[in-house]
Amino acid sequence: MAESEPHYHQPFYTIMSGTGPGESDTNYVPLVPYNGTTATGGDSLNDNLNVFYESGDIAYMIICTALVFLMIPGVGFFYSGLARRKSALSLIWLSIMATAVVSFQWFFWGYSLAFSHQAGKFMGALDNFGFMNVLAQPSVGSNRIPDLLYAVYQGMFAAITVALGVGAVAERGRLFPCVVFMFIWTTVIYDAIACWTWNPSGWLYILG
């Protein structure tokens, strides 16, 4: 008697869609390989782009992103506790401004300069300028994480790096020049080093 072939179950995730008050309809959508037909993976308004990734991976990265975000005001309170009373509020303000300024810079061109798919050994290209085509394509960090989630995750690290540096401004500089410095430093220094280190095209990444 011939042995029966093993049966493999394709992984799936669950979508809950309400059908009425107190009711829900459960549909199982199989995970499929990334299609690669478009730069974004499809139209998010008409297509379900979540089928390319495991929901557990997405949830884990979202939690990690939130935890890094919570560290930013924590750094501000830490620095304000070390400084004199007259500088305490300004240090908290600078840590929050680091999030605002770096978030804009990251959306504007920071993510593209650091993690674009067409990056060179020293700096990324501007093919993701303004988060253009940053959606469901597998990220350069991992093919299990979409570009959009990876961009937000790395953006939080860029923000907290700048927030850590503003402690040097306490009682030594003015606030507005510091805000301008945040944007310039993130563009010239952080984005370049992030590309070298974490982008697979970066020269330090290649060296291992």
Automatic annotation (TrEMBL):
Keywords carried by this UniProt record: Ammonia transport, Membrane, Transmembrane, Transmembrane helix, Transport
Pfam family of the protein (one): Ammonium_transp
Residue ranges of every copy of the Ammonium transporter AmtB-like domain listed in the record: 60-207
InterPro entries per UniProt: Ammonium/urea_transptr, Ammonium_transpt, NH4_transpt_AmtB-like_dom
Main location: membrane
Cell location: Membrane
Transmembrane parts of this sequence: 58-79, 91-109, 148-168, 175-199
MF terms in GO: ammonium channel activity
Membrane topology: Multi-pass membrane protein
A GO CC annotation given for this chain: plasma membrane
SUPFAM superfamilies: Ammonium transporter (SSF111352)
Family according to the record: Belongs to the ammonia transporter channel (TC 1.A.11.2) family.
PANTHER family recorded: AMMONIUM TRANSPORTER MEP2 (PTHR43029)
Protein name: Ammonium transporter MEP2
Species the sequence originates in: Aureobasidium melanogenum (Aureobasidium pullulans var. melanogenum)
Lineage of source species: Eukaryota, Fungi, Dikarya, Ascomycota, Pezizomycotina
